[in-house]
Each structure stands twice: as C-alpha cells, then as structure tokens.
C-alpha cells in the first residue's frame, strides 16, 4: 500500500507542469489533432504529478530520429515456471510521441502514434480497430484505436468511472484482455510484414530466469506466447516500454509506476491462461456505505483443450468475509467476451449455489466445451456457447458478475489509521480445473472500502476542556434535508455507525468529547449541531469532505484526507481529527449570537437617546422662555 500520509504540494511546480501540458495540448490542437487524457476518477492531491495521460497524435508508427528511442527493453518474468521452448513475440501497437516529463524527470504525459492509413499500416490500424470494437470500443475510437484503448483500458479508470474497472485493475482481465486476445490472432496485425515485431524463440521463462526484449522502438506492445505447451501458455500481454528523457539522458517510468500492483513500464509478468483468475469491483470510486450493494466481476480465460481432455471441470468459489453478505444465486450473471448476452442459464440447475458465506459456481466447462469422440468421453472446445451464437473459443474471457451487500461488520477506514486491517471487507476468489493440483487464489485486491469521521467537542476558549452532550445531525451535501440514521455500537461509547434501518438521526459527543461516525462512503457531509452542552452556544452548520485516492491501476487505497468547508468553528488537528469548538454563553461571548457588537450598539444608542432627550428638553425650555417674553 502506498504512502497514506496527507501530502502537501508545491504549487509552483504544479503551475509550471500544467502550463507545459496545456502548451503541448494547444500545439497538438493547432495541428488538427485530438487530445485524449486519462485521469483517475478521484481527487488529485496538490503537488503530485497527474495520472499518466495518453494523448492522440497522428504520426507514423516508427520514428528513428533519435537512436535513444530505438533501444528500449521489456523484461518478462514469471512467478512460477512457464512453458519450455516457447516463442515470444513483441508486436508494436503504437510508438510514443509528444512526451512530457515532470520536474523530477518522470514521464507524465505521452502520445501514441497512429498508423498512416496506407498499405500495411492501414491493415494494422484496421486490425487494432476491429479488436477494440469487438471488445466494446465505440465508433469514436476509429480515429486512433490504439490510443483509445490505451486511454480507456490500459490501467487507468475513466472519469466518470467506466463500466470496465476490471481492465483498470489488471492488464490480464476485462475488456483489455478481450482486446489483446482478439489482436493476438488477427493475421492483419501479427502476420508477416504487418505490425513491427521482435521474436524470441526457444525460450523458457522461469521464476529465476527472465526474458528481455531489447532494441525495441519505445512504445506500446502486445506480447504473445506461441509454441511450447499450449495448456501452459501465458495470456497475451499489453505493456509499454519506458520512455527516453533527453534532459536526464535515461529511460523513465511514470512517477507511480510499480505502485501497488500497477506494473512498471518495461516489465511484465507471464500469466498462465489456465490458472489466472481476475477479481475486481465494478465502479469503485468513493467506497460504500453500510447497506450498499458492491458489484464484483470475476474473470478467467477459456482454456485450450487441444485434441481433448478425458476429464474436465471448471469451478469458481468466492468466500465472503464477515463484512459482506454473499449474493443471491439467482442474481449471478455470466458473459463471454464483450458479448452482453447472459449465458448462466446454460449451466445445470443448481450449478450456482451459496452455502454459508461461500458462493460456488460449478459446471462452467459447459459454457465453452462439450464431450465428443468415441462414446463422448473427450472434452473439446466449442466455437459458441451451446444453443447460442455467443463466441467462446479458446482465449475468450469469461466474465462473472454478482453483488454482495456490505454490512455492519465491515471495517471503516479513518485518516488516523489508513493501514487498518480490512480483511473483513475483502472476499477470496479461487479457480479450479483438472490442470491444477490445487485451487488458485486471485492475485487481485478488490476491497469494499467504507470510511468514517473522528471528531472531538471542546470549549473553544479552553480546548483542554472536553464537552459531552453535544448533539448533531449529519447529512450528505447532495441531500441536505435528509439526515442520516445511526446506531451507537456500545453503551454511551460515542461510536456511531451508519444504519439505514435505524430511525435515530442524532449523534452525541460523550464524556471525553470524542465521538466517531463510521460506515459511510466518501464525499461531502453537513454537520449541524442541534443541541449544545449546557452553558454553550451551538456552532453554525459546517461541512467536511472525506476524500480517498486509489493507487493507479489498482483498487487499493493510497491516501485518505479530510477537508473542512469555510468555518471558524471547527478545525483539523494533525489532519486526522475534526475538532469542534463551542463558546460559553456569557455576555463576553455574545458575538456568537449577535455579540458584544450589539451590546456596544445598545450602549451607544442609549447614550444618543439620552443626549437627544436632554437636547429636546433644553429646546422646550427655550421655547417656553421665548413665549413668556
């Protein structure tokens, strides 16, 4: 997990960087090109470099102007031994162009070159577009399909968050893997004389011996394994090289390259298509409140059964923790590739079941294989799902979606303890088939985060004096007239948990002045003091925003911070505790309800009145005297 501390920024560095980026984008626009920027859909902390951006540029695939851009490398590693005597080919999808670096020399923004649209380049571009649209890309991707894929699926969630958070969480799953799988078999892309490529033959990649492609044009690549053991091949991999920084005379990554499980540029890991199972939360952005439904997507690739297998069974299990209620079996949906036709009804009755906290899905092989041959004893791949037109050839990504409900046992994360153990918010997915001796747990983190506020009520003029008995309502800023409801988790312990089933809308500070609110999603909240402690004035309503950021290309929390609205009645202590100061209801503290300014006005007003009355009386006496004369 990344650094969870609240970070301060360098505004001047930010301004210089933004000005440089805007200048480059203006230049591209003047050239008639389209800009595509990728941003993580969470608040950006000041002083941090922006998320990696992909900008569109209409230039040829290969630029040989600088030798430094043609000796890039990509290193393949494995967490276990891969195929023996395999062939690995790196195909260039798009070369880098228009690179921008931050003040520290890290890559900040980069463009992907577009094929020229003639000859073999035209075929390559068409192949990329066909694979992209087959995976769900819109017509708008046709201008530069490689760039669109990179901007939307290559490890960076979109704003607003797209439906495909799986690709953002893993380069081996989601629509990105559907795209990679299609491109890896398209002869207009991988055929002789098409996409530029580098081949490594007779290779055995093990956990101790990596494989390095060298002398590469810097850019984005598709790496495909062929030959070797067909049942032990890696999924096709999409990975970019590092970028050459002329000023620093070295190759660099994005500042957040390698953070969390985000792969660094220039490096990739083989993923065996028979064992890898992806797991992600769909639409994770601001976390969840207790009672919310959390949607998961679990993925695996259809294995290549070759000439047939005597026995075959594919099973997915998902074990849910105390903080998540498992799904209803009837709500589980299964899809093949980018096709949105549900195919779970092609399983046997009872194949999807829940026992206790465990969801089990059996007979998945019926979606992509059938028995054939003498006596129907051999399992072989099928071209389509039985009784449908849904393609499901080897390599197709099977996508399983379902929802679990986050409950009162979920652990809330606070800025004071961002490394809180969230095991109770994390499910465990395993995948099993006959090519395994044991099940393979998903390597991806998919944590259903929920958050909270820590507050302290004090005497504004004597902060060591803690105040109990202050009562508040809390509402989301987008629903200010609907107070949230809470339950206190213990007898007068001041720990208030959001409870959608409760009718209580009041939270109360207890003996130490401390109280907490937990079980809420991130966002802006309005705190209204409805009853002040005896002898004190209530503060004006104020807002607090809780903002998480997630490590790029992961669903792992990176930072968490509070931000107060415009108020003088509350402040942050150490960035992690919201302190609320009440003022005593004495004459000297009247400014808080009209104040001593009013008292002074009354005194001055009284003096003016006395002077006026006296003047009037003197005037009256003068008139009487004049009348007598």
Provide a short characterization of the protein structure.
By secondary structure, this protein is of the alpha+beta class.
Give the key terms.
Immunoglobulin-like, 16% helix, 629 residues, SpaA_PFL_dom_1, 7 helices, globular, Fim_isopep_form_D2_dom
Structure description:
- With 629 residues, this protein is of the alpha+beta class.
- Helix content is 16%, strand content 33%.
- The protein contains 7 helices and 37 strands.
- Strands 22, 25, 26, 28, 29, 31, 33, 36 and 37 form a 9-stranded mixed sheet that branches. Strands 1, 3, 4, 5, 7 and 8 form a 6-stranded mixed sheet that branches.
- Strand 3 and strand 4 form a beta hairpin.
- The N and C termini lie far apart (100 Å).
- This is Isopeptide-forming domain-containing fimbrial protein.
- InterPro entries: Fim_isopep_form_D2_dom, Ig-like_fold, SpaA_PFL_dom_1.
- Keywords: Membrane, Transmembrane, Transmembrane helix.
Layout of helices and strands:
Layout: H1 11-30, E1 53-57, E2 72-77, E3 86-101, E4 107-113, H2 119-134, H3 145-153, H4 165-169, H5 174-183, H6 187-190, E5 197-203, E6 211-216, E7 219-227, E8 237-240, E9 243-245, E10 250-252, E11 267-269, E12 277-281, E13 293-301, E14 315-319, E15 324-325, E16 333-336, E17 352-355, E18 358-361, E19 369-372, E20 378-381, E21 397-406, E22 412-413, E23 428-432, E24 440-441, E25 450-459, E26 462-466, E27 471-476, E28 486-488, E29 495-498, E30 507-508, E31 514-520, E32 523-531, E33 536-537, E34 542-550, E35 557-564, E36 570-573, E37 577-584, H7 595-628
Helix pairs in contact: 2-5
């Amino acid at each position: 997990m990344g650094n969870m501390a609240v970070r301060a920024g360098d505004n001047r560095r930010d301004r210089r960087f933004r000005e440089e980026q805007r200048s480059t984008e203006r230049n591209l626009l003047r050239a008639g090109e389209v800009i595509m920027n990728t941003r993580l859909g969470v608040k950006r902390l000041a002083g941090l470099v922006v998320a990696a951006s992909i900008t569109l540029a209409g230039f040829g695939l290969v630029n040989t102007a600088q030798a430094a851009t043609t000796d890039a490398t990509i290193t393949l590693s494995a967490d276990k031994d891969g195929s023996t005597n395999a062939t690995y080919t790196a195909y260039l999808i798009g070369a880098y162009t228009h690179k921008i670096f931050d003040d520290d020399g890290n890559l900040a923004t980069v463009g992907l070159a577009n094929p020229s649209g003639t000859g073999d380049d035209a075929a390559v571009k068409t192949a990329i577009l066909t694979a992209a649209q087959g995976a769900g890309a819109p017509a708008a991707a046709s201008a530069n399909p490689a760039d669109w894929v990179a901007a939307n699926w290559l490890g960076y969630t979109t704003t607003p968050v797209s439906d495909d958070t799986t690709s953002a969480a893993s380069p081996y799953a989601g629509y990105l893997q559907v795209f990679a799988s299609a491109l890896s078999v398209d002869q207009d892309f991988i055929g002789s004389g098409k996409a530029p490529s580098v081949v490594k033959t007779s290779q055995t990649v093990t956990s101790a011996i990596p494989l390095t492609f060298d002398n590469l044009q810097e850019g984005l690549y598709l790496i495909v394994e062929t030959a070797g053991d067909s049942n032990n091949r890696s999924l096709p991999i999409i990975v970019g090289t590092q970028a050459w920084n002329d000023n620093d005379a070295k190759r660099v990554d994005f500042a957040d390259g390698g953070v969390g499980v985000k792969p660094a540029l220039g490096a990739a890991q083989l993923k065996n298509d028979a064992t890898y199972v992806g797991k992600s939360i769909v639409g994770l952005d601001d976390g969840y409140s207790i009672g919310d439904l959390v949607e998961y997507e679990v993925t695996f690739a259809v294995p290549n059964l070759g000439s047939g297998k005597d026995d075959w069974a594919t099973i997915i299990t998902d074990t849910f923790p105390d903080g998540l209620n498992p799904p209803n079996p009837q709500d589980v949906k299964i899809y093949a590739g980018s096709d949105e036709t549900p195919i779970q009804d092609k399983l046997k009755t009872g194949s999807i079941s829940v026992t206790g906290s465990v969801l089990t899905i059996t007979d998945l092989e019926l979606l992509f294989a059938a028995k054939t041959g003498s006596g129907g004893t051999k399992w072989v791949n099928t071209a389509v799902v039985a009784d449908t037109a849904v393609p499901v050839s080897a390599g197709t990504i099977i996508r399983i979606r379902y929802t679990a409900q986050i409950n009162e046992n979920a652990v809330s994360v606070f800025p004071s303890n961002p490394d809180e153990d969230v095991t109770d918010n994390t499910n465990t997915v395993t995948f099993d088939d006959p090519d395994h001796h044991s099940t393979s747990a998903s390597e991806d983190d998919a944590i259903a985060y929920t958050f909270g506020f820590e507050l302290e009520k004090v005497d504004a003029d004597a902060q060591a004096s803690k105040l109990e008995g202050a009562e508040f309502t809390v509402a989301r800023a987008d629903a200010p007239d609907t107070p949230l409801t809470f339950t206190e988790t213990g007898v007068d312990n001041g720990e208030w948990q959001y409870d959608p089933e409760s009718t209580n809308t009041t939270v109360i500070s207890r003996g130490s002045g401390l109280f907490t609110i937990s079980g809420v999603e991130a966002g802006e909240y309005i705190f209204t003091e409805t009853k002040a402690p005896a002898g004190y004035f209530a503060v004006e309503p104020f807002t607090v925003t809780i903002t998480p950021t997630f490590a790029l290309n992961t669903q792992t929390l990176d930072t968490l911070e509070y931000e107060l609205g415009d108020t003088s009645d509350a402040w942050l202590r150490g960035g992690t505790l919201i302190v609320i100061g009440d003022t005593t209801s004495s004459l000297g503290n009247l400014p808080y309800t009209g104040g001593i300014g009013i008292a002074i006005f009354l005194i001055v007003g009284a003096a003016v009145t006395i002077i006026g009355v006296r003047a009037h009386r003197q005037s009256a006496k003068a008139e009487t005297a004049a009348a007598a004369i």
